[in-house]
Every structure is written in structure tokens, then in C-alpha cells.
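Mods, move this if it's the wrong board.
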Amino acid sequence: MRRKSKLFGMLLRNYIFFSLTVSVSVLLLLLFFVWRTNEWLAEQELPQVQASEIVRANTADMPTDTIESLYGWVEILDERLRVIEVKGKKLDKPAAYSEKELNTLFYDTKENPYHTSIAPFHSEDGQLRYALVKLPKNKIKFEVSIDELTAADRKFFWGAILEIGLLFIVLFGINVYVYSRLTAVRLTNPLTAIAEGIRNVAGGRYYERLHFEANYELAQIQESFNAMAEKLEKAQEDNKLLEESKQQMLVHISHDLKTPITTIQGYAKALQLGMIEDEAKKLRTMKLIHDKTQLVAELIDDVFELSKLESPDYPVVKEAADLAEFLREMAVDYYDLFEEKHFVFDCDIPSQEVIVTFNRKLLYRAVSNLLANALKYNPLETTVRLILTDGDTKVSIEVADNGVGIPDHLRDRVFEAFVRGDAARKSDGGTGLGLTIARHIVEKHGGWLVLDTEGGTTRFELMLPKAVVKTDSLVSAAH
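Not the wrong board. C-alpha cells:
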């Protein structure tokens, strides 16, 4: 995955790009100004500086003041290119020139120290002469005041400045536009997407996600926003499932309460109207009413217990005790019940102490629910095993039977509230909350409850950690 660059780096790069383009634009404008100035200066005539402008038949009449003011001089050459007269302060020494030397003076090179011009003329006596003007390059300074310019020159000068100003405005505008677009693409567009995402979340559209390419900081915001939206979407789905579960639970509770209550009402009405006269039938009817009343009380008790266990703030007071002795006492309590139904009740509990921290009342209910299910839903002569295994970091309580088993379509939902087999859904089929309550109790102890149906055996394994917890401490550990 390509590493994202930071926002500071992006802004710095864009600023450098902007500064460089502005600098290049200014440089181009300066070059344009110099070119236009040189063009203008080249068009200007420098009177009384060019040799053709000062030649006179009488050399005494030659106006050399301007040349001399520019630290130059005029050499008068004869036909053989010998210097016969100098007007001004001569700085070099040649007294004569060859044609090659004379031509070299007109080369525009760094080695040539002079601006040179030459013009032929005839002296008063008809002799051919040459006026050679030399102006030292390092001494010449053309200083022209705006006030000294003609109207045409001023128009040209201010026109050049206007051209340069307009070009600068255009180039600067282009730079600002490009810089703004780059910043908008890298910064404004992601911020717009984030604002749109926030509006989606505020409107309850948690399924919306952000998808944009951005720098490190904005990419982090995008990842965090998407993670938040995903959690909100999951929470919304969980709330929907919870609401559906509550509705389903209300339906089940109303059904499981209505059946025994209807039976109670029917038999109570029959007794009230004297429709049952036989004493033996009256006793059976009263016992039936008592059993149905007890079933309703169990259902209400289980629903109340489940609502408490589902609360994350429900406190579980645990103390260190011998789990082996605890299970032996439970086995004694259930031994007669299994004997009455001709069950084979096999216990495998270590003789040594197995010290674990647990809540006696809650754990008794969890294991009791497992044993009661095995007793309630299996036929005669079923073998039920209660096994305690002591491990290094955890202990395992196993309740297994070789009875009718659990239907395939219920195995994945067996720990959900009110999930029971069709054969068990009758007036004495239990509340359907036993395994749900057992699972919550185990999780409150920091353990877990699993079902294994391999090998034709229904095996519930209840596992508890062996962490030593201080006696009478308050634990609120819920998964």
C-alpha cells in the first residue's frame, strides 16, 4: 500500500510550485522589459556620437564634446590608416592600423573594449580622411530622463510598462488559478466529501462510506469515519435484531403463559360449578392446577432472571470454593430424580479439591438447567454423565447423555431464548430459557458454554477459568 503524504507536505509543495511559477513569470517579464528597452535604445539616435554625424572638412569644426563627455575620442586617419590627429583624450597607443586591425575594432566581442564607428570624409584640401570614434564600454552610461523624452518616446515607454503590467496580471492570475485548483482537488474536495458523509450519518444512512484519494491526515479521517459508520451500521442492525428478538420473546411469553393459565381457568371453573364430583378427580384436578401454577411461576422467574443477567451492570459476587465438593452435592440432589425415571446417572468427579472462584447460587442454576433438560427431554434408561475435569488454567464441567439428541435445525440456535424442539413445546415442556440462562451465567463467570453432538451423544461443556479472585470481591465481567 502506497504511503500517504502528509497535508503539510502537500501544501508546502503547492506553495513552492506557486512561488516558482510566479518567480519564473517575473523573470520572463524582466527579460521582456530588457528586450523592449534594448530595442528602444537601439532605435534611439545618439547625435554627435556616431562618426557619420560629426565629420567636417575642417577637423577643428568637428563637435566632439559629447564624445569626450563619454570618455571617448576621435582619431583622424589618412589614406594609409595612420593616425594624424586625435581629438579628445586618447586611452590606447596605436599610431596606425592595418586593415585587419581596423576591422577587428568593429567586432562586438568581450575582448573589444570599445564601441567604434568610422566615417570617411575629405579635408579642405581634398585629401581622403577617416574619422574613427572610440567610446570605452566600461565608461559609457546612457542616462535618459523621462522629462527629456519626446512625446513619441514617452508613449513607447509607458506602453511598454502597460504591456509588462498586463502580462504580469495574466501570468499571476494563471498561477493563482492553477494553485487554487490543485489545493481544491487535494483539500477542498475531500472536505466536501467528509461533510456529505456527516450529513448521511446524521440522516441515518450508516451504510454510506467515504471514498477519496487524499493526504495522510485526511485519509486518517476517512478511515476513522468509515470505521465509525460501520460500527453505527452494525449497532443499528443489532438494535433491529434485538427489537425483533424482544417482539419474538413477548410472543413466546404470551403463548407460554396463556396455555397454562387457560388450563387453570378451565379446571378452576369446573370445580367452582361442581362439575367434578369424584374426590379422586378433584385431587388430580387440584394437583394439575398446582403444577400449571408452578410452571407459570417458573416462567416468570426465568424471564426475570434472564433480564438481570443480560444487564452489563449485573454484579456477580464470587468466592473461592471446592468445585468438586459442590458438584458432588448437586449429584446427591439429583440422584433420586434420575432413579425415579430409571436413568443411569454416572458421575466422574475428582476426589481432590478443585478450587475455583464462582457464585454458588448462579452456578448451581446453570448446571441444574443442564441436568434438568437431560432429565426432562429423554426417555427411560437414558445414561447421563456429570464429569469434572481439572486443567491448568481452566476447569470443565460436562453434562452428556445418549438420549434423543437435538434436531439439526436447532443446534445452532439452542442457546437462544425460547428455542425448544417441537415435541417439547407443550404445557409441561419447560420455559425454553434454561440454556439461555445457563450461558449468561457462565459468561458472567468469564467462561463459555458449548454444545457437541458428535458420536450420537448430546454433550454440554461448561468451562470456567481458574483465575484466583479475592474472596467476596465484586466482579462485573460480561462477554
